[in-house]
Write a structure and sequence with these properties.
The structure is a single chain. The chain is an alpha+beta fold. The protein has one domain. It contains 5 helices and 10 strands. A hairpin with a 2-residue loop joins strand 3 and strand 4. Helix 4 crosses helix 5. It is elongated, with a radius of gyration of 21 Å. The protein starts with 9 loop residues before the first helix and ends with a strand.
Length: 211
Amino acid sequence: MRGQSSNSPADFQAFAAQYVAAKVAEGVERNLWQGQFDFTDGAITASSGTYTNYPGICNLIVAGDPGHEDLLTGATTSANILGRLKTLSADIPDVLAGDPDTKLFMSRAMKQLYFTALAGTAELTFHAAEAANFFNGYEIITPGGMPNDTFIFSKKENLYFGTDLLTDHIEAAVLNLMGVTGDDVTRIIMKFSAGVQIVDLGSLAVARRSS
């Protein structure tokens, strides 16, 4: 601190701004995938799920009713994850089948279940560790914010995220309220817009919980 000065020190302001920015980035990642989406039952209202800033990719998938969709009952476990992935991969559209650009998106928790399932079928743990990066030849990607019990086969170029961070319609500031309200309070604001889009719902395959 700065002794008698009521202003927060510059290094603390930088720390607080960086901390808030990290939390904002985490929120953006989670909203990107599961904004206004409840992974336990597929609900997609504005108040659904934990993250409600804007509709995420899973929200758009449910609302758009893709043709290649497998509805799951109950939570995914290490005992049923292999069966669920096999069922989903059998329903991959022709545009994705065998394409090296096709990726399998799942949460990090689901990948851990997948690894556990593979470890139970292999004698050597390192074999399971290597195999856990792929399923049926498709690379597995575990993006931050991906909801549990949700699996998506898609190409990266079919899923888009956009923001206005490169425009002048954003604002980030550290506000010290001592000179305004007399309060020993420092506030950090970050204002910007963001959203997601799916190019072609028919060019992906999805498995998600419906109950």
